[in-house]
Design brief:
This protein is α/β, with parallel strands linked by helices. It folds into two domains: 30 residues; 345 residues, Alpha-Beta Barrel (TIM Barrel). It is 34% helix and 14% strand. The protein has an eight-stranded parallel beta barrel, surrounded by four helices. A two-stranded antiparallel sheet has the order 2-3. It has a two-stranded antiparallel sheet with strand order 7-8.
């Protein structure tokens, strides 16, 4: 069969299988991961600088060491860093929910990204487009953007995105991936870009894509939603984006077993999304508890493991991560590209909570114990 006939046949087959118009062509355009390409296994370590500034120490086989060096020694090859616009500003909510030092602003991101790059780690930049946490339950616009119309917001978004990425480039950091928006299943920059304002949301996403590619066309642009195990919601979201001409290179998914279903749910969703849209998949957020205990007075946020029955121990963490990486590796045509553990370094440390005056909700999901000693599960990054 000639190449043109083959492409036509593949396109017709894709459409017959349920792919929306235009999706088959994008599927043909993307390159699959070669069988010899290593799976990216990384971690979101966005809280690391704040932990270090407040006295957190990390140990590997009893010896204190730099946290990133410990991770790299145990096989990690990439880090993810979130970017907040103006955290810690005392004059605005929710910026004032962060400490005045402004951790996770562009200045701190630059420092952490440079450290990672100097160690040879790959970098994923996660723009929240907010002064504080952005997730399915809240997408506060930066205080400087609040009340602006769509055109004004697009200009601010473009300038901010290119400005941060150009600053990183000046530091010698060339991110491999950039996600524009964090867990934006419900949209971003509410109310302007909420899920019920899809035309606005699509315009914002197109602006973000163009801003990333203006700085470096080789950066892989990611769209990230939280619905790792929910295929109906994932299809609705990406159908809505693609039908409005939104371009992207990668699909990012969150998968926490307490909230996003079973591993089978994730597998079925990832397989379908990769084929339907012709895109690679990265699980950019996941974690599993090593204990049911709590390292500080703040209640833990992950209190169960859903349908999964791996024990809440370091051994259970290892079993979970191996099963999860197998799911990603099993996505057809090499479309599964990586997995990132969320905040495996966030050990209980005074004055480092999820907001000012609060504690650490995540200390039972780390790869270190409460005293900062590496658990046996830190070797999860070795096994690809």
């Amino acid at each position: 069969m000639k190449r043109r006939e083959m492409l036509s046949w593949l396109a017709c087959t894709a459409l017959a299988s349920g792919a929306a118009p235009g999706f088959a062509a994008s599927a043909l355009a993307s390159d699959a991961r070669g069988s010899g390409e290593r799976l990216t296994l990384g971690a979101d370590v966005s809280t690391l600088l704040e932990l270090e500034a407040n006295g957190a120490k990390f140990y590997d086989h009893g010896k204190a060491d730099d946290c990133l060096r410990i991770f790299k020694r145990h096989g990690l090859d990439a880090i993810r860093i979130k970017v907040w616009n103006d955290p810690g500003n005392p004059d605005y909510f929710p910026a004032n929910q962060s400490v005045a030092a402004g951790y996770n602003n562009a200045k701190h991101v630059r420092v952490l990204a440079r450290r990672a790059a100097e160690l040879g780690l790959r970098v994923l930049i996660d723009f929240h487009y907010s002064d504080w946490w952005a997730d399915p339950g809240k997408q506060y616009p930066p205080h400087a953007w609040a009340g602006k119309d769509l055109a004004q917001t697009c200009e601010l978004l473009s300038d901010y995105t290119t400005g941060v990425l150009r600053t990183l480039r000046e530091e010698g950091v060339r991110p491999e991936w950039v996600q524009t928006g964090n867990e934006i299943t419900g949209g971003m920059l509410w109310p302007l870009g909420k899920y019920d304002q899809w035309d606005n949301l699509a315009t914002l996403l197109k602006t973000a894509h163009d801003a990333v590619k203006t700085v470096d066309p080789h950066i892989k642009h990611m769209l990230h939603i939280d619905s790792g195990g929910d295929n109906a919601k994932s299809r609705w979201w990406f159908d809505s984006a693609v039908q409005r001409g939104v371009e992207f290179d990668l699909i990012g998914l969150s998968y926490y077993p307490q909230w996003q279903g079973s591993l089978d749910d994730l597998q079925n969703n990832a397989n379908d999304l990769s084929a339907r849209y012709g895109k690679d998949i990265i699980v950019v957020e996941t974690a599993y508890p090593w204990t049911t205990s709590d390292g500080d007075p703040e209640p833990n946020s992950m209190t169960n493991t859903g349908t999964l029955n791996f024990p809440p121990t370091p051994e259970g963490q290892t079993q979970f991560f191996a099963a999860l990486t197998n799911v990603v590796k099993s996505i057809p045509n090499g479309r599964g590209k990586g997995v990132f553990w969320w905040e495996p370094e966030w050990i209980p440390t005074p004055n480092v909570g999820w907001k000012v005056g609060a504690g650490d909700q995540w200390d039972n999901n780390t790869l270190f114990d409460f005293q900062g000693r590496a658990l046996s599960s830190i070797d999860v990054f070795r096994k690809r």
